[in-house]
Amino acid sequence: MSGRSSERTAGRLNRILAMLPWVIANPGTTVAEVCQRFGYTREELIGDLELVFVCGLPGYGPGDLMVAYVDEDQVVVDMADYFAAAPRLTPAEALALLSAGLAMLGTGQGSEALESAVHKLNRVLIPEGEEPLTVDLDAEPELVGDLRRAAADGRVVTIDYVSLGRNRRTVRQVEPWLVFTSLGNWYLFGHDHLSGEERIFRIDRIRSLSITDRRFEPPSPIPEPEVRYVPSEEDVHAVIELGPRARWVLDYYPVDVLADDGEVLRVRFSSADPSVAAGLLLRLGADAVLVEGDEVAEALARLREQVLALYEPG
Amino acid sequence: MRRVIERVLNLLAFLLTAGRPVTAEEIRRTVAGYDRSSDEAFRRMFERDKELLRRLGVPLRVEATDAWSVEYGYVVPVDEYRLPDPGLTDEERAALWLAAQVVRVGGGPVGSSAVLKLGGARLTGAVDPVAADLGADAEVLGDLFQAVTERRVVEFDYRGRRRRVHPHGLGHRRGHWYLVGTEGGEVRTFRIDRASDVAVGEEPDAFERDPRVSLKDALRSQPWESGAEPPVRARVRFDPEVAWWAARRLPGVSAGDDQPLEVTLEVTNPEAFIGWVLTFGPRARLLEPPELVDRLVERVRGVA
Question: Which of A20, A66, A191, B105 could form a disulfide with A83 if both were Cys (CB 3.0 to 4.6 A apart)?
Answer without folding.
Answer: A20
